[in-house]
Design brief:
By secondary structure, the protein is an alpha/beta fold. It has helices spanning 14-31, 43-46, 62-69, 128-140, 154-162, 173-178, 212-218, 224-239, 291-307; strands at 6-10, 35-39, 75-79, 91-95, 104-108, 121-125, 145-149, 168-172, 187-188, 203-208, 248-257, 260-271, 278-285.
Amino acid sequence: MTDKALRLGTRRSKLAMAQSGQVADAVSRVTGRPVELVEITTYGDVSREALAQIGGTGVFVTALRDALVRGEVDFAVHSLKDLPTTQPAELALAAVPEREDPRDVIVARDALKFTDLPRGARIGTGSPRRMAQLNAYARTHGLDIETVAIRGNVDTRIGYVHEGRLDAVVLAAAGLNRIGRIDEVTDFLSVDTVLPAPGQGALAIECAASDAELVAALGELDDPHTRAAVTAERSLLAALEAGCSAPVGALADLLTDGPVIKEMRLRGVVGTTDGSRMVQQSTTGSVPLTHDGAMALGRELATEMLAQGAAGLMGERAH
């Protein structure tokens, strides 16, 4: 392999630059080559529309993938939850590194926890998935909240709380960890309360499928347990025929007995954004050792959820 710099395509946001910088360091270690970041603006970065309105699926990804196909960059880093569930044949998902904390978190005024927010509290999020589950939890626990649709980067969202326009905002723990702002969190939401987006907390490293040498080098950063988990979660999403802006939560976690990994449990939820109707299911099986095994786990749970009426809760189904 040459010692020429590898070009890493990344979105320009502070979070994207932080996570791409961390991947760049890791890739430099495994390849012995310098890595330079190439900043690319995606449609999702410039559009001010709500993600659910512009389709959600792929809006942060397409421009990066186009640059890869054109050979303008050698590899790209995405937040895995932004990736459409179908993989283009010309691109390889070369690595899914070990996952960060998949949970959602609250940043609230006066250091409040979610359950301590005052009656009528306004909670900001751009995610129908978060709205559905927060509203469902509030309904069943006698809380009075109003979810407010917002867009913007981390600074903008937390700013709404500091300015007093919102009582709280919901963000991903992984993102705040990666930009060094986890200490601003006032409450970590248990996955029993809010299931994360499929793939949340994980990164995806993509390159041209034809570059076997680079695919192999990047593959050294792959974490097999993370890959199995997110493959099952994304298979569930695909089988529900839902895009990544749909109100679908999913999490595959490993069940252990001491140091021994026993099984993988996959949980899924879909609901109306007002939280009035929810379908929640889980399945447990042996840890999938193959891509096909992980895909089958997701499809199996999706079949159960569709039988419970999940399709009718997603509004417009994204095909």
